[in-house]
Design goal:
The complex is a heterodimer of chains A (about 220) and B (about 70). With about 220 residues, chain A is of the alpha+beta class. Chain A contains 6 helices and 6 strands. Helix content of chain A is about 25%, strand content about 10%. Chain A has a two-stranded antiparallel ribbon with strand order 1-6. A two-stranded antiparallel sheet of chain A has the order 2-3. Chain A has a two-stranded antiparallel sheet with strand order 4-5. In chain A, a hairpin with a 7-residue loop joins strand 2 (about 35-40) and strand 3. Chain B is an all-alpha fold and about 70 residues long. Chain B is built from 3 helices and no strands. Classes of the chains: A alpha+beta (about 220), B mainly alpha (about 70). At the A-B interface, strand 4, strand 6 and helix 6 of A face helix 2 of B.
Amino acid sequence: MARMKFLCDAERCIECNGCVTACKQENDVPWGVNRRRVVTINDGVPGERSISVACMHCSDAPCMAVCPVDCFYHTEEGVVLHDKDLCIGCGYCFYACPFGAPQFPQQGAFGVRGKMDKCTFCAGGPEKDNSPEEFAKYGRNRLAEGKLPACAEMCSTKALLAGDGEVISVIYRQRVTLRAARGTRSGPPWGWDSAYGPATQAGAPAQPPGPAPAAQGGKS
Amino acid sequence: MMRAMGLMLLCSLLFALAACGERAQVVNYKQGTYQGKPDTPPYQNPPFNGDKAAWERELATRAQAQNEYKRTH
């Protein structure tokens, strides 16, 4: 086995937030903490794209590098996990992470910040697998049950892929090849090319009826 | 002449064996300075009970469930 990875297909993501909901439900994530979120660029403008983001389980993880108490570790599958018993909730990992993955439970604007919480690739943490202690601290350990992360398995359009990097890259490559074979640009509209009506010219989707869309702006 | 041929044979043998010293170019995760509790591999406990191959097969099967081209065609 190579290593566990997430791969989000921006051509397919429809910003339904099903992955966010599945993650929260599966891991009983507390209020105010989002291990996963959907980021949309050019929201409401033809050609908008959404992508589901969580911990990317980096090979050379910056959170691991900056942690003052060394509570992060890599599993042999390449998943970055941490020990909540050791975490002091300092927030360095939040500043170091380029994806904003580390989350901190907090009560009010000036409340006490809790221990860091982040995506575990549904692999639990350093407690006995599928024990109540593991679930309470880290959420469900689906990997130990032979399952993939809930966010990807629940994705309705299969935009979000999870699993062995080599396997999911083959799945993604097959998709891209089929899209090209179907000719999304010059042939029948498919995916985002058909989202706002037929294309007016090669590659450019038609403008939606009604008033012009508001100024471009990102939404997370 | 024989000496030169022997030398060439030796050189070719060394060249052929050069690839044997090549290291695998994959990430080797080290625990580094991790201070927390040890974690067990995901296949260590039931239902897999240490059978890594069965666990990998199960994950490979589930990964293909994400490929709807394979599911529908």
